[in-house]
Specification:
The complex is a heterodimer of chains A (159) and B (132). In chain A, 29% of the residues lie in helices and 35% in strands. Chain B has a six-stranded antiparallel sheet with strand order 1-2-4-5-6-3. In chain B, α1 packs across α3. The two termini of chain B are 27 Å apart. Classes of the chains: A alpha+beta (159), B alpha+beta (132).
Chain lengths: 159, 132
């Protein structure tokens, strides 16, 4: 993952934060550990991760619940905002829309790709998509706005 | 327990996500949904707030369960939009849902979530569902 994080024009301070966050997420954060997050591409304002879709998150019909789609999208979108910053600032999701396009059974893996479209003032705009890892079939699209520089403590990423 | 609440519980019992969320429902005509806080619901451990996606998942499941209880139909979420109005704490979350409009094939609902004080909402969500 270090290669992906150092790629592009990410601010070095942000890159260092992402590397420490990566280690924490992979080993110590129970939610993200269960999702087995793996980076595919991280550049300035862009991020692509693959992840597991555990049966813990199944819906009443047995497929992966849309709530997990939103958990993934919110997480990867937030990380994408960090890659676009020039200095570490706390961020928070203002709002998020998820369109559910496809269903998938638990056990498969998915890929979430996100792009920070713009940062205007204190608001970062992010869009992206969730696809199946094997066929690239579209599962969901998302669009969100994030507050950059919240009043909260600066203690790293909000994932 | 009302028949409506029984159907909500029946729907939730079939969703593994409900167990992960610690999802319950109570009340009579006015159902209150609850997320039982668990450390796995934390997003950023430094801030110790609930993950925004977890809040969205809780509110979406509450809307689905309520809509199922009303219609008995297969429920599929077309889309959801959520606004985060204030910060959350590492505590239980409560929620209420409202049916805005139910047609033959679509239903529109909204949900609100709060923690200690219902007048200080943490998030509101609106979603469109297809009825199968």
């Amino acid at each position: 993952m270090s290669d992906q994080i150092s790629a592009g024009d990410i601010n070095p301070t942000i890159g260092a934060m992402l590397r420490s966050a990566r280690d924490f997420l992979a080993h110590e954060h129970s939610l993200f550990r269960s999702l087995e997050l793996k980076p595919i591409l991280i550049g300035k304002g862009k991020a692509t991760f693959s992840m597991a879709l555990p049966d813990t998150f199944a819906s009443a019909d047995g497929s992966v619940h849309g709530g997990l789609y939103t958990i993934i999208i919110d997480s990867i979108f937030g990380l994408t905002v960090f890659t676009a910053l020039e200095e570490i600032k706390p961020i928070a999701t203002i709002n998020l829309r998820t369109d559910f396009v496809g269903a998938i059974a638990p056990g498969a893996r998915a890929i979430c790709s996100a792009e920070c479209e713009a940062i205007k003032g204190d608001i970062a705009y992010v869009s992206g998509r969730l696809t199946t890892e094997i066929e690239g079939r579209l599962l969901a699209t998302g669009a969100g706005a994030f507050m950059v520089g919240t009043k909260g403590p600066i203690r790293g990423m909000r994932l | 327990m009302t028949a409506h609440l029984e159907r909500i519980n029946e729907y939730a019992s079939r969703a593994a996500l409900a167990r992960w969320l610690g999802f319950t429902a109570s009340g009579g005509e006015d159902v209150v949904f609850r997320l039982a806080f668990n450390e796995t619901h934390i997003g950023n451990p430094a801030i110790r707030a609930l993950h925004g996606g977890v809040i969205a998942a809780f509110l979406e499941l509450a809307m689905q369960a309520d809509l199922y209880a009303r219609t008995g139909a297969g429920i599929s979420t077309a889309n959801i939009s959520i606004d985060y109005l204030s910060s959350s704490r590492p505590e239980d979350m409560a929620g209420r849902v409202r049916l805005l409009r139910q047609g033959r094939r679509l239903a529109f609902m909204e949900a609100s979530g709060w923690q200690a004080d219902e007048t200080r909402l943490v998030a509101v969500a609106r979603a469109c569902f297809t009825l199968g």
